[in-house]
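Section 3.1: Structural characterization of target chains.
Under the original work plan, the team committed to producing a structural model for every single-chain target entering the pipeline before any wet-lab resources were allocated. The record below documents one such target. The sequence was received from the expression subgroup and is listed exactly as submitted; it comprises 474 residues.
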Amino acid sequence: MLILILVGDGWISYHREVTLFNEDMEKDAMLMGKTMSGIIEHALEQSDRDLAHKLIRYAGSKEHSIQIRWVDLDAPPIAMYAPAVPLEKLESVIQGKSASLIMKKNGTGLYRFTYVPILAKSDSHSAVELSESLSALNNYIWNSVLHLIVMAALLLLSSAGLLWFQFRKWIQRPLARFIDKSRRIGQGDLTPDLVVEGRDEFAELGETLNSMCRELNDSREAFRLETKRRIEAIEQLRHTERLATAGRLSAGMAHEFGTPLNVIHGRSKLIRSGDLEHAEVIESARIIGEQTDKIIKIMQNLLDFARRRKPNRSSRDMAVVVQQVIDMLSPTASKAKVSLEIIKRDDIPLISFDPLQIQQVLTNLMMNGIQAMADGGRLVVELKIRTKHQPIKEDNKSEYLVIHIIDGGRGIPSENIGHIFEPFFTTKDVGAGTGLGLSIAYGIIQEHDGWIEVESTLGKGTCFKVYLPVEVSR
């Protein structure tokens, strides 16, 4: 804006100065012409024409910037005293009036031609011609334009320098602080340490950003505490479900403990009677030891299952874990007249998982299968490798270990299949189940980057399909 104002003012000043310069040149030429015309008229009145010519030549020799000539307005264009300007443009001079014109002269540039008529009676068609080059005017114009350009450039540079200094001080530096703070916020640094001086919009924005950091920090802390409480609640629910399952397992185990305890009791009585041979005593002691180990193993499995632990992943053989669950559920399954079987369809690699959590999942699913077969039957745990898309992610196909838990029970009604993984949803009698088993099992498998599917036909049985990723652990 300043440069536009300066250029506009310079342009107006330029035109004004050029006009004044032209007017001064014209006035000077007219004054000089009239002076020479008066002297020549006086000489002609004295009938001294030669004197008049001498005066003009003398004046022309003294004035270097202006050429002065005597011209005859009646002379042909090629004559010595013919005017430099065509006669058609000198009508006013012929009529006795002075004239000033600007024209080119023989290709040497612009000249100002001034004609003052000589009004002597003896020479009525003569005039004094004054020609002055306009090179001085051109030089003045060029110097004015150059001055304007230089001033505009200086103003532009000084304004740019001032603006750059102000920009760096009031805009760039605060922006650099905002950018740095934004990056640190993106990296998780929510410390409200942004300092912006002044009382302008940047200072207000800085205070707003600090306030946002404080609020985000408080929200993050509240979210962390809430997440911690939820995790603790989930762990408590899992522990409760484990204890409930352990309670149901204990009922079956109590019956299973009867046989080894009776054997131990009988063998111990035989040993106390003293009627046995030494070899028979040793054999009875061996049998007592075997039955005791069996009881200890069953109790240890039950205690490990019920014990509350944090997730601890490690590379394991899933077939071994399945077999441990089968061993633990065998008393309950025998009581319910259900046979348990494991089938490996493929070469199963080691995968990474928490054995206790997966043991809880398998126990819940297998217990549901046992309870679904009221008249007994066969429960099969099948292991195989399949390549499949994960339903909740749009990723490439990956390898998964699939655990099929197949029972021949009563099946699940179609209207209940969509709800079986919801917390506290159960179709069992009051007191027979918490409704958390399948929900907890689904959550555990999700934490292992897998999922559970279910297929069921009323009156024929149910198949739970547990998918666990293989690639992560390879």
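The chain is about 55% helix and 15% strand.
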